[in-house]
From TrEMBL:
Homotetramer. The lineage of its organism: Bacteria, Bacillati, Bacillota, Clostridia, Lachnospirales. This is ATP-dependent 6-phosphofructokinase. Its main location: cytoplasm. The gene is pfkA. Keywords: Allosteric enzyme, ATP-binding, Cytoplasm, Glycolysis, Kinase, Magnesium, Metal-binding, Nucleotide-binding, Transferase.
Amino acid sequence: MKKIGVLTSGGDAPGMNAAIRAVVKTAIANGIQPIGFIKGYNGILEKNYHVMDRESVSGIIHSGGTILKTARCMEFYEASYREKAFHNAKEIGLDGLVVIGGDGSYRGAGYLSELGLPCIGVPGTIDNDIASTEYTIGYDTAMNTVVECVDKLNDTCQSHERCSVVEVMGRHAGHIALNTGIATGAVQIITEEIPTPIDDVVENVKKIRESGKDHFIVIVSEGYGNPVEIATQIQEKTGIDSRATILGHVQRGGNPTLKDRVNATRMGYYAVKLLEEGKTNRVVALQQGNLVDYDIQEALKMKKPLDMDLYNMMMEISF
Ligand SMILES: Nc1ncnc2c1ncn2[C@@H]1O[C@H](COP(=O)(O)OP(=O)(O)OP(=O)(O)O)[C@@H](O)[C@H]1O
Ligand SMILES: O=P(O)(O)OC[C@H]1O[C@](O)(CO)[C@@H](O)[C@@H]1O
Ligand SMILES: [Mg+2]
């Protein structure tokens, strides 16, 4: 193993820089030349890369975003472009590649592995929607950002005796919504997995108002429905003044938390060790606090349901 590449792909996530740093430093520590591809798979297609050294990853462990930039590379859905990427990688002299990204990025890595370039996936996405791992890089920071914002909304909700309907990210997964709902004392969370009808939400808010509560937080996972429409329905059917807030991309930025920095560092280190052991077509995962690895296709077939015990607990004490 003489030369390995690293790239970030899909949506950015706080902690990706810490993962890049770990890959680069682990490679250097083991006598391997690391190179960083720019803008995800585009970097391989366009041979757009930087030779990485200790200096290039200095002072980045604490910063959000990704120094390698990221992208959704549409060409990669086509076999001919993936073959071109494989040939470029061979011309560059690449012996392996670490792909930091979500489930989509894993698929790209799976194809490159099949073509003969050893690839290891590292889970980097705020959504925590990768079934093979309990934890994805950026998830903790994103949730802490949500909590900070909803705490502020809660202050003004209390003053005005209002209901705040807050849309959070997560693509099709409600993990962010559920955990931030618990952490902010929300009266209701609505996700694609638990698509509570609006009339049930209204009834729940009314029932909770009868218990004496006069301000309400409802967390809606993106993909479920329009939060403005939900707020309007709550206001019309309960008489409670309601407002909608879409938190949006603020959830993707900011300095990574300790948890994200430590996990990103562990996962980046582990990925390079897998390449050194001659492994390919694997993804790094965290299971019960330990790092493990899975075959990419097996990992992509796994399911990660929402934690219904957590949901039921939240609803039982949401009054
Ligand atoms: N089926 C696929 N075949 C080949 N490449 C793919 C495939 N799916 C995704 N990719 C590559 O991975 C990139 C990122 O995928 P996607 O947009 O699904 O994000 P992700 O990696 O799941 O991250 P996130 O969901 O956090 O944004 C795509 O733009 C494409 O370059
Ligand atoms: O940055 P974009 O392309 O708007 O994508 C937004 C999507 O990316 C994520 O932030 C990360 O996958 C999702 O939560 C969201 O649905
Ligand atoms: Mg994804």
